[in-house]
Each structure stands twice: as C-alpha cells, then as structure tokens.
Amino acid sequence: MKLRLRVWRQKNADAPGTMVTYEVDGISRDMSFLEMLDTLNEELILRGEEPVAFDHDCREGICGACSLVIDGDAHGPERTTACQLHMRSFEDGDTIDVEPWRAAAFPVVKDLVVDRSAFDRIIQAGGYVSVPTGSAPEAHATPVPKADADSAFEHAECIGCGACVAACPNGSAMLFTSAKVNHLNVLPQGAPERETRVLGMVAAMDEEGFGGCTLTGECATACPKGIPLPSITAMNREWLRAVRKVKR
User: Are 193 and 130 in contact, with CB atoms under 8 Å apart?
Assistant: First the structure.
C-alpha cells in the first residue's frame, strides 16, 4: 500500500503546530497503525529528519497510551485502540490525517504526544479503597451480588486512554470519571470512601479544566472498551446522594 499521511507536527507546547504531508510506500495491510508510523519514522531517520513523536507502550490494547485522532476519529475508524487498528481498514492511495487529542486539559507535549496527567490527578482524588495491613482476606469472605460484580468489571475495563475526552465536543471527562467512580462504589470494599470518592473526583475533574457533559454520547461511541453512557447517570446519582449526605 502507498499512503499519504498528513501528520500534526509541533516542536513543543509553546511552539505553533502544523500539518505536514508525508508519502509512505510498501505498507502491509497486516501492519498495525503504529507499525505504519514506525515505518514512516525509519524513513525520516534515514533521511536525517526528526521522527514523529507518538505515545505507545503495550501495543496490545490494554494500556491506553496510543492516543491518536485518525481522520477525525479518536483511535480511528474502528472501535478499538490505535495500536490494534490495522491498515486493512484503509485503502491503497488513501490520505490519512493523524492528530493528537484535542482538549484544553490535554496540552500537547510534542507532535502527537499529549500530557494526560490530569487523569492521574482525578484518580488521586478518590480512585482507591482503604487497604488494611496484614494478610489478604479470604476471596469469598465478602459476598458481592453478581449484578454488582458485573457492573464493577464493566467499568473496570476503562483503560484511561482519553478517547472519550477527545471525541466529546465539550472536552468532558465524565465518562472516564464515572467509570472510575462506579467501578469502586458498587463494591463493598469501596463503601468507606463512597461519598468522598465521588465528591473528590468530580471536583478534581472540574479543577483540571475539562468541559461540561451535555450527554451527546460521542464519548461512549468512541470508547474502545465500551464503557456505557448510563455510567454518567449513575455517577450523577452518586454525586447527588453524597451531597445530600454531607449536608445532613
């Protein structure tokens, strides 16, 4: 395959950025999107040019590092992560636009790399449970209803990639935050911090400058792990419950 790539290049957070066009040839349809970018970078290095900076780690769809907007879609045309997107999703001769996440809370570091540490600070505000010292408790010592266990597992699938923020027209982090809140709040182990968790994480989300949620649903559509949109409604109920309890 021969492709034309229009890639966002930006030297650093303070420098202006622009789209730069590259031609790449000999691309296998079985390559992942990141392998295709590796091929481009190998050619740039051989020509003595600066390679394109982009985030990646596991390349197995687990870590969420591969944050790319491809042809206007977070992670590209398939509902998966960019590292699991394969070039067979494109046609020979295609022109492909590759950009970083676009959100005020995710400033560009260089080229396609953005700073997503805002997510880390949201987690630090409440994404944990009390852990007593001593040996691990017996696995079946605390019964968990199957519906609650299923809900916890569903929300625990969030990999924190930020596609929800990139896809949202408001740059909202509600789907991410709701996944982290609901994952723990439905479990008995998360009960001690139930109120402080949701209040702290929502406050941290607002402080980071993420936009407000208007339930357009683009976040859930773009999520590679299928975190459902009603997760946001569940978090809103948790927040209202916590506010009422604190006011008593």
Answer: yes
- Max Cα separation, the chain? 68
Are 171 and 104 within 8 A, CB to CB? Answer: yes
Residue 8 contacts residue 100 (beta carbons within 8 Å): yes
Which residue, 67, 101, 72, 63, is CA-closest to 82? 67
Structure tokens at 121: 């600070």
| Residue-level pLDDT at 23 | 97
Q: In sequence order, what are the beta bridge partners of 134?
A: none
What percentage of the chain reaches a pLDDT higher than 90?
A: 90
- CA separation, residue 43 to residues 24, 37, 48 (Å): 9, 10, 9
> Looking at per-residue confidence, does 106 or 143 come out higher?
106
Average of per-residue pLDDT across 67-92: 97
Return the half-sphere exposure (C-beta side, CA atoms, 13 A cut-off) of residue 132.
7
What average pLDDT does the segment 94-122 reach? Answer: 97
- 3-state percent helix, strand, coil for the chain, nearest multiple of 5: 40, 15, 45
Residue 116: name the closest of 126, 107, 127, 125 by CA: 107
Beta strands in the chain (DSSP E): 3-9, 18-24, 69-70, 73-74, 95-99, 108-110, 113-114
In whole angstroms, give the CA distance from residue 180 to residue 35.
31
Residues facing residue 20 across a β-bridge: 7
**What pLDDT score was predicted for residue 133?**
61
Q: Is the pLDDT confidence value at 82 over 90?
A: yes
